[in-house]
Design a protein that fits this description.
20% helix, 595 residues, five-stranded antiparallel beta sheet, C8orf32 fold, alpha+beta, 31 strands, Immunoglobulin-like, 10 helices, disordered C terminus
Length: 595
């Protein structure tokens, strides 16, 4: 979680190094409460707003870099804050000047956010971080107003480097001071009344801040604002929203041997079990920037989404529901999915060579593909040890047919459909020995309270070397022969100066493989856990938690001794302080007498 503004009043969340391994929400939803002022400030309503952390992190990962002033419009996100606009609109519908009432109520909400100098942010970020300067506050106000159906623009006063909002109304608005006329500016024949968003005072639409008198703004239209958001906040006037939940699972889809496409199904259920609700599906390969897809729930509140794998490496996936007028939104757990290279469609074996079908002009690339993925994650950590816990699932990523050349008639070979443009490629016979087909974790003690976590694919030589070294500084767990495909298991592993252990449990909690080296842990510097033999498969992890072990707490006796020493010295410290105060007063009096 990255906070862009570090100012007083911001709730700072302690972030462990775990964020580098698996992006996850520490706060769940961000729940906010605003006072919504309507009927020209005479009536106040509580407005409860809840923001799923996935939506916040989606916008945070976009990290906008503005090159041109007109690009401010791209940061206006009316769809994401539409529930806030709807809630305020419902409170102002009966007013004779409902548009003006609505705009002033939005300004009243935005004025409750403290002013602070920070980078430009999307409106959802401004709500979560609860601070902003003139541009971020104006982007939030413009987003809510536009979501509520108003025609708005941004007013950029370049002379004083200030931004606020322009609101079109078919009449002149009432200003705070009845003797002061409202201020507005025209763009293409349409007049926009100034709306100040900073919280210096309770500005209303039309009020001119003294700082801007005599300044002319550059008017930025919002034609290029964001059309749709992957999700939105939930909002409700009155009492707080009820909580909701969403689950997530992942499974493979059966692939044809004539296709290299690998598809995984992401599924789960929503509670409350509403039908036809939009579920957002977020994907990331770096844990910072996210892309998003959408699907709908069925009549029982279940959802399903087909994910076509387009790249190898590490992927982070989670799903989210935005909520409604009664329920907060909800995020699922984050799935960490490791994807290896796909094997070729059909392989032929002879006593001296391997043949695969591929494209002749990329034969060298085909050879690299056969090598597999070596490194998925490489994380360095500091502490007194490292602890790894997770659930994992080994999934098929496609079907492969291996045919020995000898013993098969030409009629059998002719029945296999070879895609157009593919041809036999000859690879060395020992290619299997150099393929990174052993997938697992390596936890290592590098000394001086320094630890590393590596998730990688090992070739046969590396795996054999680790196995042979298990009696010399390496604890080794090989669970590959016990693991069934498309089944969830639990992994717990720990390595420290005085303890090294790991165990793999099945769905019933039964330990199916374990290693413990407590007695001679000081001689063990590496813990290796192998989970599957093929890195061309997809390996999914749920609730992946990697963290350093805290420093040891000071013994109670030492703390008590320290407290006793403070108590014993307290009278002397008080006496010395009193003497110092008397001396200071005497010196000051002497100086005053000289003057």
């Amino acid at each position: 979680m990255r906070f862009k503004c570090l100012k007083p009043g911001v709730l700072l969340v302690s972030v462990m190094l775990l964020v580098l391994v698996t992006p996850r929400s520490f706060a769940g939803n961000y729940d906010l409460t605003f006072s919504s002022q309507v009927q020209f400030g005479l009536v106040s309503h509580e407005l409860h707003v809840s923001i799923p952390s996935s939506l916040y992190e989606y916008y945070q990962g976009k990290n906008p870099k503005l090159v041109d002033d007109n690009e401010y419009a791209t940061l206006v996100t009316p769809d994401a804050v539409k529930p806030i606009a709807n809630s305020i609109r419902n409170l102002t519908l009966d007013s004779t000047r409902s548009d003006e009432e609505f705009a002033n109520a939005v300004l009243s909400l935005v004025h409750q956010i403290p002013y602070a100098d920070c980078d430009v942010m999307y409106p959802v970020e401004t709500l979560v971080e609860n601070l902003g300067k003139c541009d971020t506050l104006s982007l939030l106000a413009a987003s809510i107003m536009k979501a509520g159906g108003l025609d708005v623009v941004l007013l950029y006063f370049k002379g004083v480097h200030h931004i606020n909002v322009g609101v079109h109304l078919p009449y002149e608005p009432h200003t705070t001071w009845w003797w002061q006329p409202a201020t507005g500016y025209e763009l293409n024949g349409t007049k926009y009344w100034i709306a100040e968003c900073t919280p210096a005072m309770e500005w209303k639409v039309g009020d001119m801040p003294p700082l801007l008198e005599g300044e002319q703004p550059w008017i930025i239209s919002l034609e290029n604002s964001e059309e749709t958001s992957p999700a939105y906040v939930s909002a409700k006037p009155g009492g707080p929203l009820n909580s909701s939940s969403i689950s997530i699972n992942i499974s493979p889809e059966i692939s044809s041997i004539s296709s290299q496409k690998r598809t995984l199904t992401i599924s789960g259920s929503l509670s409350p079990a509403y039908p036809n609700e939009t579920i957002s599906v977020y994907f990331s390969q770096d844990g910072i920037s996210y892309s998003a897809g959408k699907t709908l729930t069925d009549n029982l509140g279940n959802y399903s989404y087909s994910w076509n794998l387009t790249s190898t490496g590490t992927h982070y996936i989670r799903t989210s529901w935005s909520g409604d007028v009664n329920y907060t939104g909800a995020d699922s757990d984050i799935l960490t999915v490791f994807i290896g290279f796909p094997n070729s469609i059909i392989q032929f074996e002879t006593p001296t060579f391997h043949y695969i079908y591929g494209r002749g002009y990329i034969a060298r690339y085909e050879l690299q593909v056969r090598q597999g993925v070596e490194d998925f994650l490489d994380i360095q950590m500091s502490g007194t040890g490292i602890l790894l816990t997770s659930e994992f699932n080994i999934m098929k990523s496609g079907q492969i047919t291996v045919i020995p050349m000898e013993g098969y008639s030409s009629e059998v070979l002719q029945q296999i459909v070879i895609p157009r443009g593919y041809q036999p490629l000859r690879l060395p016979y020992d290619i299997e020995q150099t393929t990174n087909n052993q997938f697992g974790f390596i936890l290592e003690n590098s000394g001086n309270n320094s630890y590393s976590l590596n998730v990688k694919g090992l070739d046969t030589y590396e795996a054999d070397k680790i196995n042979s070294a298990s009696e010399n500084g390496t604890a080794f767990v090989n669970a590959t022969s016990y693991i069934k495909e498309n089944t969830w298991y639990k992994l717990v592993a720990k390595i420290s100066e005085d303890q090294v252990n790991a165990e793999v449990q099945d769905t019933n909690g039964t330990v199916i493989e374990r290693v413990t080296t407590t007695n001679n842990a000081i001689n063990v510097t590496k813990l290796v856990i192998l989970l599957t033999n093929n890195t061309d498969r997809a390996v999914a992890f749920k609730n992946l938690n990697v963290e350093t072990i805290d420093q040891q707490v000071q013994p109670a006796e030492e703390e008590e001794k320290a407290a006793n020493w403070v108590e014993l010295l307290a009278p002397y410290v008080t006496f010395i302080g009193l003497i110092a105060a008397i001396v200071a007063i005497a010196v000051a009096a002497k100086k005053r007498k000289r003057v």
